[in-house]
Design brief:
By secondary structure, this protein is of the alpha+beta class. It contains five helices and 20 strands. Helix 2 packs antiparallel against helix 3.
């Protein structure tokens, strides 16, 4: 028991000596704990107020305004091709020609049938005229015969014979009139067949239905094609042209609001080429349930064919300009357990952690929604050595060359 107390007293004495030595070292000018160190060297900038464009960005896919698979409308043999693969053509330009021989034969046959039926119609009409004259004469004879019968000059048998002849002439007239009607119908049918044969002949010349760029020729001259079967060539309309892209559904209300005020201007950035400017002209009628995005389309004039069907491009659209937004360099933004924050320097050179609401990035700057006012000083370098309430010493801004060297060193270059 006495031995235990002896050890306890000795330990207390050693602890007291250590504390006394620590205080003595501190009063003697030696370095103390971190919180007793001098001001931390940092760099800082003033939060600024700026008019910030409200943009949306996406990856877009270039699509032809129209795509047409050119096919033959009649069966036949391809005789000739009148374009080069990849050539720009205009609507109505001749692309292919089929062998016209069987179609010309069909036209000649239809013309012969028409001429025949026109002649038959003329003959039938002449017969009607002759029948009308004979009927008129027969009716006159029948009338006289009936009058003479009443006077007792003609017998009943003679009168009936003359009347029967008149009735026969009337039946012949009706038959010839029906023949005229039939011949007229035949002539109309022949004309329709002739027009159809001419239409079929016109289909042997295959023209471009739209203006656009031709693809690869799928069937070469000499091959037989069926009507509305294989694709001969595909035409893509590239002037104007679509760029399709999708944006998160949260941006839809703003897009609809700004597009209602004026057609939304959309910029497409093909890789390594100048930008193209177009207008938003389509907003899909439903949000994609799988991705939570809404599909948009913009139309571009594409005068120099910089936009190519199937190409992926960067798309930007400026919805509006937001005035007097607080912006700070993105490097000032830190992320902690409770979200994003910045180190703010007070007038007495002390710093504090300030939670901020970051709306979005704008180039190398961040747009602040709340938590910071324009003119407040925020720390850009040296944040890792800071603690709340620490004093700081602001270094002068770096030159461009020093900033580049510092960035290279930080990245391991």
């Amino acid at each position: 028991m006495h031995l235990y107390r002896f050890h306890l007293v000795a330990a207390a004495a050693l602890l007291g000596s250590a504390l006394f030595g620590l205080v003595g070292c501190s009063s003697g000018g030696s370095k103390g704990p971190a919180f007793a160190m001098g001001p931390v060297a940092v760099r800082a900038v003033s939060a600024s107020s700026s008019n910030v464009p409200l943009d949306l960005s996406a990856i877009g896919n270039v699509q032809a305004l129209s795509t047409v698979d050119v096919k033959a409308r009649v069966a036949g043999q391809i005789k000739s091709v009148h374009f080069q693969e990849g050539q720009d053509v205009r609507a109505g330009d001749v692309l292919f020609e089929l062998d016209q021989t069987p179609f010309l034969d069909a036209i000649h046959e239809a013309e012969a049938n028409l001429a025949r039926d026109i002649a038959l119609t003329a003959q039938a009409k002449a017969n009607v005229v002759k029948d009308q004259a004979m009927l008129k004469s027969a009716q006159a004879q029948a009338d006289r015969a009936q009058a003479l019968e009443r006077e007792g000059i003609f017998s009943k048998e003679q009168t009936e014979t003359i009347v029967a002849t008149s009735e026969s002439n009337q039946a012949t007239l009706a038959a010839d009139q029906a023949a005229v009607t039939s011949s007229d119908a035949a002539v109309r049918a022949d004309r329709a067949r002739l027009e159809d044969a001419k239409l079929q002949l016109s289909y042997t010349t295959i023209r471009a239905p739209i203006s656009g760029r031709t693809g690869a020729i799928q069937i070469r001259p000499g091959n037989l094609v069926k009507d509305n079967d294989a694709t001969l060539v595909t035409l893509l309309q590239t002037q104007p042209i679509y760029v399709s892209f999708s944006v998160p559904q949260q941006q839809l209300p703003e897009i609809r609001r700004y597009n209602a005020e004026r057609p939304l201007e959309v910029i497409a950035l093909p890789g390594g080429e100048a930008q193209e400017t177009g207008k938003l002209n389509f907003i899909d009628n439903a949000v994609d349930l799988n991705t939570g995005t809404i599909k948009l389309k913009a139309v571009f004039a594409n005068p120099k064919h910089r936009l190519w069907p199937g190409q992926f491009v960067n798309v930007k659209a400026q919805l509006s300009i937001e005035p007097d937004r607080v912006v700070v360099p993105t490097q000032t933004i830190e992320t902690g357990p409770n979200g994003k924050y910045v180190w703010v320097m007070a007038s007495d050179s002390s710093v504090s952690m300030r939670p901020v609401n970051v709306l979005r990035d704008w180039g190398d700057k961040s747009v602040i929604g709340s938590g910071l006012q324009a003119g407040e000083m925020v720390i850009t370098e040296g944040q890792m050595r800071l603690a709340p309430g620490a004093k700081v010493h602001v270094l002068k801004p770096q030159s461009q060359a020093e900033a580049t060297a510092s960035n290279n060193q930080a990245s391991g270059g």
